[in-house]
Specification:
With about 425 residues, this protein is α/β, with parallel strands linked by helices. The protein has 14 helices and 16 strands. The strands form four sheets. The protein has a seven-stranded mixed beta sheet, sandwiched between helices. Strands 1-2-3-15 form a four-stranded mixed beta sheet. Strands 13-14-16 form a three-stranded antiparallel beta sheet. Helix 8 links the parallel strand 10 and strand 11 (about 260-265). The longest helix is centred in the last third of the chain and has 21 residues, at about 320-340. The protein is globular and about 55 Å long.
Length: about 425
């Protein structure tokens, strides 16, 4: 047994499945998860000392790359003055100001510690604000693991949702309606039938949890118009896309002002920080001002705020997103060029938005969850493992988006493309 295998075996003794978050277990691709010992820039090293070019970046937060000197400096300096107070600190004021300045839809913002907390709180707030219970979500979108969001579509359209996890009460799932992504007609039909009961619509404005799926212009416009017409709260879950697809997030790319926005991942620069915010009249319903309760012992933790603040400042530097987007686009273009040389049954396709990309074992770019489900998963798993052997760390699932960081240079991209080409012709 190598060290990764030893650690995975040991981990399973006291940690369920050996992991603290399920995708880490390599369940969908098979094999032994890599235990990481170190990261620097675009690279990570596993417990056996093997080095990889990393395209996961802790599932998105590490937009500056691993162990960025400015982030380390800010966190170290802050830690010397204490880890946590459970009382207000000056850093929280500065990061709230910065977030509201960067994202025009945020009039007020509250800090929390995970994306799950952000979406869960935003939904409670939307329900408290509207006095309604029903929630719309879309098939294939992930919004963290709160009960009302672990719901899959029922047997027919416009039916009640069913729990997608054991332990979620049917009564809770019944208030979540699940619709197909990019299906404007289904959305219109639902609002026509029960628009006055809808508290909120929550969406990944660019989906990144069913691999990368882009919304159509019509879908984006319909979500804004229908929620507005029916007095429902439009929640953009930008936990993944926030400050990852561009400086003004997906809402900036779409030209949409959501009522509430959830942020996470990049905002914490690798430490547990997330946020939700938006319209001041809605945010005023939150405790202590209003009747909607929400709280957190470690909310706005000084170390997380320090890491987040530096990360936001670095990505705001002129040219940051242009450079990141160009590299990520070059990666997707390179993969598409390789795909064109392969037979349709063995091909690959890719796309990118900002520093985020999708790779599909399919000749076509998907537009829905069912398109994604039709990609060749067996071939993806073979591709994943062959790349891993060659020192390229991709997300261990065909249903995850990937990430390029500012620390990736054209050299790493070219090495990865060369390896991908060799691997794809072989498998
Ligand atoms: C990651 C993610 C979440 C959950 O965030 P956690 O910090 O893992 O709780 C919610 N929504 C989206 C879109 C995400 O990508």
């Amino acid at each position: 047994m190598n060290r990764n295998e030893q650690l995975f075996a040991a981990a399973q003794q006291h940690i369920p499945g050996g992991v603290n978050s399920p995708v880490r277990a390599f369940g969908s691709v098979g094999g032994t998860p890599r235990f990481f010992a170190k990261g620097e820039g675009a690279y990570v090293w596993d417990a056996d000392g093997k080095k990889y070019i990393d395209y996961v970046g802790s599932w998105g937060p590490l937009i500056l790359g691993h162990a960025h000197p400015a982030v380390i400096e800010a966190v170290t300096r802050t830690a010397q003055n204490g880890m946590s107070f459970g009382a207000p600190t000056e850093g929280e004021v500065h990061i709230a100001d910065l977030l509201c300045q960067m994202l025009p839809s945020l009039e007020q913002v509250r800090l929390v510690s995970s994306g799950t907390e952000a979406t869960m709180s935003a939904i409670r707030l939307a329900r408290g604000f509207t006095g309604r219970d029903k929630l719309i979500k879309f098939e294939g979108c992930y919004h963290g693991h709160a009960d009302s969001l672990l719901v899959k579509a029922g047997s027919g359209l416009l039916t009640f949702g069913n729990p997608s996890s054991a332990g979620v009460p049917a009564a809770v799932a019944a208030d979540t309606i699940v619709l197909p992504y990019n299906d404007v007609a289904a959305l219109e039909a639902l609002f026509a039938e029960q628009g006055d009961k809808i508290a909120a619509l929550i969406v990944e404005p660019i989906a990144g949890n069913m691999n990368l799926v882009q919304p159509s212009k019509e879908f984006v416009a319909a979500m804004r118009k229908l929620t507005q017409d029916h007095g429902a709260v439009l929640i953009y879950d930008e936990v993944m896309t926030g400050f990852r697809v561009g400086l003004q997030c997906a809402q900036g790319l779409h030209g949409i002002t959501p009522d509430l926005t959830c942020l996470g991942k990049v905002v914490g620069g690798g430490l547990p920080l997330a946020a939700f915010g938006g319209r001041a009249d809605i945010m005023a319903k939150l405790a202590p001002l209003g009747p909607v309760y929400q709280a957190g012992t470690l909310s706005g933790n000084p170390l997380a705020v320090a890491a987040g603040m530096v990360t936001l400042q670095e990505i705001s530097k002129p040219g940051f997103f242009e450079a990141l987007s160009a590299k990520t686009q070059a990666f997707a273009d390179g993969l598409n060029a390789i795909g064109q040389q392969l037979a349709n049954t063995k091909t690959i396709s890719a796309q990118s938005v900002g520093g985020m990309f999708g790779i599909y074992c399919s000749p076509n770019i998907p537009h829905s969850y069912s398109d994604v489900m039709n990609s060749d998963r067996v071939r993806f798993n073979a591709f994943f493992h062959a790349m891993l052997d060659e020192g390229i760390y991709l997300a261990p699932s065909a249903f995850e988006a990937g990430f390029v960081s500012a620390a990736h240079t054209n050299t790493e991209i070219q090495i990865t493309l060369d390896i991908a080409k060799a691997v794809l012709h072989k498998i």
